[in-house]
From TrEMBL:
The keyword Cytoplasm does not apply. Gene3D superfamilies: Tetratricopeptide repeat domain (1.25.40.10). InterPro entries: TPR-like_helical_dom_sf, TPR_rpt. This is Uncharacterized protein. The keyword Ion transport does not apply. Residues 317-339 are annotated as: Disordered. Keywords: TPR repeat.
Length: 339
């Protein structure tokens, strides 16, 4: 299964600016700073950390990932020097949790987000925290808790777009525990909230998730049809291969690729392309089986799909050879001399 993970900086920065916490509020007067030198030192430390966070976001404009990681690590240290771990300010701690999540420290992020919830932050912040907590639970294979966290976020989120994303991510969690009925229902509920514009963004990946769910429920043809539909919005599969997605377990990527190649083979206009795509699909099914543990619950179905795909590939090869043979011109007939 895959997950959509939103970058934390933009949204949380808006939250911080919406209700500015005391630690990062407008610079106090000279007299106020003189009366509270320790508080001024803390505020300056956090301002320095904020500048580093903004620099880390310049990655898309040319900053290397290594430099972005360096800025994030420095910002983390500065927040900790400023005493963020003992702060009662949910906005400040949410920013810190975002840094931990970007650094990939999901155990620490989970601990911090759970601590923020104990501070009883405002509803919009709780919704964001539950959403990020669910993503961390997914990373840690704690799927029952992930499902509950998405449920809490949905109870707080009133807007259709974010609700659709929460529903599709929760559907992925149901897939992880083997509840295909709930997974398929969740994907469909997510899609029902989307307009045409949103279909070009996370609607595409929701269709892919629905495809895998339908395939695992035994409906291969509907699965391939949903991938065809997804490609009407995203012909080059940019969304499903984008940086905002990750797979749990990681080898699940091969299942997605196998179905994608299979659909490409069915849609190919030439025999050579059809054979190539079927070959790619077979290789992806084999990669899934090679990567999955022996106790993987979907391995038996993957073996069935591999055999089906091999049969279709063999049929495509026969058809391609037949076409090439029939296209050959007949041998030239000897011609006698004219009298």
């Amino acid at each position: 299964m895959s997950r959509h993970r939103q970058r934390w900086l933009g949204g949380l920065l808006l939250g911080v600016l919406w209700l500015l916490p005391t630690a990062v509020q407008a610079r106090p007067s000279v007299w106020a700073r003189a009366r509270d030198p320790q508080g001024e030192k803390q505020r300056e430390t956090i301002r320095t950390a904020e500048r580093l966070l903004l620099k880390s976001e310049q990655e898309e404009g040319g900053l290397s990932p290594q430099m972005a990681q360096l800025y994030l690590t420095q910002a983390r240290l500065l927040y900790e020097m400023a005493g963020v771990k003992t702060s009662t300010d949910p906005f400040l701690r949410t920013r810190y949790a975002g840094i931990l999540q970007e650094l990939g420290d999901y155990e620490a992020t989970t601990h911090e987000l759970e601590a923020i919830l104990r501070l009883s932050p405002p509803a919009p912040v709780r919704s964001e925290v539950y959403r990020d907590l669910a993503v961390c639970y997914a990373r840690l294979d704690r799927h029952d808790e992930e499902i509950r966290a998405y449920g809490e976020a949905l109870a707080l989120e009133p807007h259709a777009g974010p609700r659709s994303l929460l529903l599709s991510n929760r559907a992925e969690a149901f897939m992880a525990i083997g509840d295909i009925t709930q997974a398929v229902a969740g994907y469909r509920a997510s899609l029902a909230l989307l307009g045409t514009r949103e279909m070009f963004s996370h609607g595409v990946t929701t269709l892919w998730g629905l495809s895998v769910g339908l395939d695992r429920s035994g409906d291969l043809e509907s699965a391939l049809e949903n991938i065809r539909l997804a490609r009407t919005y995203d012909p080059r599969d940019m969304r499903i291969n984008g940086p905002g997605w990750f797979y749990v377990p990681s080898y699940d990527v091969h299942w997605y690729k196998a179905l994608g190649h299979w659909q490409s083979a069915r849609a190919a206009e030439t025999g050579a392309a059809r054979v190539q795509f079927f070959g790619d699909a077979v290789a992806s099914w084999q990669a899934y089986l090679d990567s999955a543990p022996t106790e993987d619950s979907w391995a038996p179905l993957a073996r069935v799909r591999l055999a089906q795909c091999e049969r279709e590939r063999e049929d495509a090869i026969r058809r391609s050879l037949k076409v090439r043979t029939s296209a050959k011109p007949p041998p030239a007939r000897p011609r006698g001399k004219t009298p």
